[in-house]
Design goal:
17 helices; Rossmann fold; 25 strands; 3 domains; alpha+beta; Jelly Rolls; 6-stranded antiparallel sheet
Length: 588
């Protein structure tokens, strides 16, 4: 969730996902007849918000230009480096880059996109932009002043991760408070819909990310976030306030993003071009899918699109083994299967797409699909193809009526006890897991947090046996999967806090199967249940399964995104009866 995290902790982040931001500090000199200056804006509660404003050559009251807002990732700071935003300035856009509260030179503490704080900070920045005489105006969006001059500025927004979240939270806060937003269009990247579900899906803490994010941002946050992150790291439970003295990050963070506004019936009514890393195992493709389908109004959705590429917050999977991906992204680099019928996009990728989108809005067209060709454009895991899709949930049942019984011994071993309704040859449970888990990686994730990491007893994994997945054969290649799969079953769980992780995998055999785009999602049963109907949404993927390869459903007691506390920690068994797996197949 951070530019620093990109440098220090992300082991694989595409340049496309980074959005081309350049971090820097200090005074900005005039660049090629463009000019820039620093400005401090006072927010609603007196907090100072530090900004750098870039004014393109020739911009004036007589020749006004549209404005783009930009902000940074978690623990980062605004872009104020020499030569920054040259592309935008050369294309006739002004840019305002700002430090979010608790970051850089801005005051206050970071409340992680609280609408009443960070959301209203964005409104204060928009107020400042509206007062700039050289910024273009929109006639007919928010009315006119008494002398007939339009008062609403033409303004767009860019940024990734935390810098994508401010766009949604700012626009939706303004709609909730004013009834409309002054933003004309947004272009957020690798960001969230529901922050709680991103950090702890189904209450299973993604400790690998929580540890890293907390280490980077501990000095910026208020006490309740300190306590919440510490609680999650030390107990493995996402704090929801149910226990006396337990902080409630679950409800707080669920409201710090689009999901909270959607729950209140507030939706975004401007077009959005979203970029999302499909191999992002913090904010996965499912988060962009939710934003597209649930956050936008029907009218805005008709003018919006999602571009999925390889990259983002991407840590490699070792338990169970994840696949590699190709940073060549067909959906942003053009080519015969690329966007808009092979229209060649520059190597800057998404940066160029969003500028074309903003220019289209300025021209009165404003349809992201004219730029990218379809509601969803997803680069396959090998980077070779761009899938053009209308929906992500047109699913086909590849397994139905299967009964699987798995047992966990409390040390991370998942054993297949019974498989009914499917040939024995279609289920494999390797005796040994092919990849070793490096305990040093656990210690590194906790470095700087003030906590000791304990990987004894197999809670995070060992070189043999622990973490061995169960594979259920779904279909033989060739075939293409593009979208969000899901499974359903009647679940019987014996034991307390049972957790099983699910993913789609591809390989020539179970022993060579690798998790597609390094994403898993859990089923969690806090208490024993008998025959409880459950549906588990699996990570969204885009993958070509070649001839000779097989698509598997993979079950694992271990996911190293949730090491130490995320996996099953008590002996027990889980029975999945009448298991159905529905997969979005792409017709060629």
């Amino acid at each position: 969730m951070t530019d620093r995290l990109t440098r220090r902790r992300m082991l694989a982040l595409s340049s496309v996902a980074a959005g081309g931001a350049v971090l820097g500090s200090g005074p900005i000199a005039a660049q090629a007849s463009h000019e820039s200056y620093d400005e401090t804006i006072e927010s609603h509660d007196g907090t100072d918000i530090a900004t750098t404003v870039y004014r393109p050559a020739g911009a004036s009251a007589d020749e006004p230009v549209p404005m783009i807002l930009h902000s940074h990732g978690w623990s980062g700071s605004r872009t104020s480096g020499e030569g920054s935003f040259q592309r935008e300035l050369d294309r006739g856009f002004g840019v305002l880059s700002f430090d979010q509260r608790g970051h850089g030179e801005s005051g206050g503490q970071a409340h992680v996109q609280n609408p009443e704080l960070e959301g209203r900070d964005v409104i204060a920045v928009l107020d400042y932009v509206e007062a700039l005489e050289w910024v273009a105006r929109d006639v007919g969006r928010s009315g006119s002043t008494s002398d007939g001059a339009a008062s609403d500025p033409t303004v767009f927004a860019i940024g990734g991760s935390y810098g994508g979240a401010y766009q949604f939270v700012g626009a939706l806060t303004e709609i909730a408070r004013r009834g409309s937003t002054r933003f004309d269009a947004l272009a957020p990247q690798i960001t969230w819909h529901d922050l709680s579900q991103s950090l702890a899906p189904q209450g299973v803490v993604r400790t690998a990310w929580i540890a890293a994010l907390y280490a980077l941002g501990a000095g910026n946050v208020p006490e309740h976030i300190h306590r919440g992150f510490v609680y999650g790291l030390t107990t493995g439970q996402w704090p929801n306030g149910d226990t006396p003295g337990e902080p409630d990050l679950d409800n707080r963070f669920a409201r710090n993003g689009p999901s909270g506004f959607v729950d209140d019936g507030v939706h975004l009514d401007v077009p959005v071009l979203m970029g999302q890393g499909i191999s992002d195992n913090l904010f996965n493709l499912n988060q962009a899918w939710r934003n597209f389908e649930e956050t936008l109004t029907d009218e805005a959705r008709e003018r919006s699109a999602v571009v999925g590429y390889n990259g983002g917050h991407a840590l490699p999977n070792l338990l169970p083994a994840g696949g590699t991906w190709n940073f060549q992204d067909a959906c942003t680099s053009g080519g015969s299967d690329g966007i808009a019928g092979g229209d060649v996009i520059s190597s800057a990728g998404f940066e160029e797409l969003r500028l074309r989108f903003f220019e289209s809005v300025c021209d009165g067209e404003g349809d992201a699909r004219d730029i990218v060709g379809s509601p969803y454009s997803l680069t396959t895991a090998d980077g070779e193809r761009c899938l053009q899709l209308d929906v992500l949930d047109d699913r086909t049942s590849l397994a139905a009526g299967v009964d699987l019984s798995v047992r966990n011994d409390g040390a991370g071993n998942l054993e297949l006890q019974r498989a009914d309704g499917v040939d024995d040859s279609a289920v494999a449970n390797p005796d040994e897991f092919p990849a070793a888990f490096d305990p040093d990686a656990v210690a590194e994730a906790f470095e700087g947090t003030g906590f000791e990491s304990d990987v004894e007893g197999g809670t995070a994994g060992t070189t043999t046996g622990v973490g061995a997945p169960v594979h259920l054969e779904l279909a033989a290649g060739p075939l293409t999967v593009g979208g969000v799969p899901e499974l359903s079953a009647a679940v019987t769980s014996v034991g307390v806090d049972q957790r099983v992780f699910f993913a789609l995998s591809v390989g020539e055999t179970p022993a060579t199967a690798r998790v597609v785009q390094n994403n898993m999602l859990p089923l969690r049963e806090p208490e024993p249940v008998v025959g409880a109907d459950r549906t588990v949404e699996l990570p969204g993927v885009a993958v070509d399964v070649a001839e000779g390869e097989t698509l598997y459903l993979t079950l694992s007691a271990i996911s190293d995104m949730s090491f130490a506390h995320g996996s099953i920690r008590t002996p027990g068994a889980v029975l999945l009866e009448d298991l159905t797996v529905d997969v979005p197949l792409v017709d060629e």
